[in-house]
Amino acid sequence: MPILVLLSYLCVLLLMFIWGYIFIYNKNIIQRYSNFLHIPRSQINEYLDSILHKKYGLNIIRVNIEENSEDDSDTKPAQSRGEREGAKNMIIGVLFSMTLALSIGLVILMMCELGDYLEVEVRLTLFKFTIDTLMLLLIFMLPFCIISLFMVQELASFTRSKRKSVVAVALFIIWFVILH
Question: Where is the chain membrane-spanning (predicted)?
């Protein structure tokens, strides 16, 4: 009986994960809110002129564009940038769906605890699994991804700027010091 309960709980978690991932990813909710408009530095003045001046009638000062900036070294083709964005959104979708599924599973376990359903050792095992996995996600995985996205604009690649990478690692270490 406990094996059947464990398998059914894992199936519920899997179904919640799949539902969350398909709903979030296929409805493009992540893509709509996580992508920013990328305009190359050489075209920023034309963009500002066409959008802000012509559309809204605003007169703004032109942006001084430095030719030898570190952002100008973006020589990757647009297709690989799109592939990186797709992979980044997929990882974000998986992490979000895992957190959503485990949170729903934790609520289900709390309801089982209140109603005194299932055996005590089965509930304890499921609680331990769910809470440990949620803690792994919320303490290690998500802060690492958030700090990386904020500082380096990538999930795991620290090759763009060494200074930003060092700051991201320092913030991650500070996060662990705060938790300790």
Answer: 6-24, 90-111, 131-152, 164-179
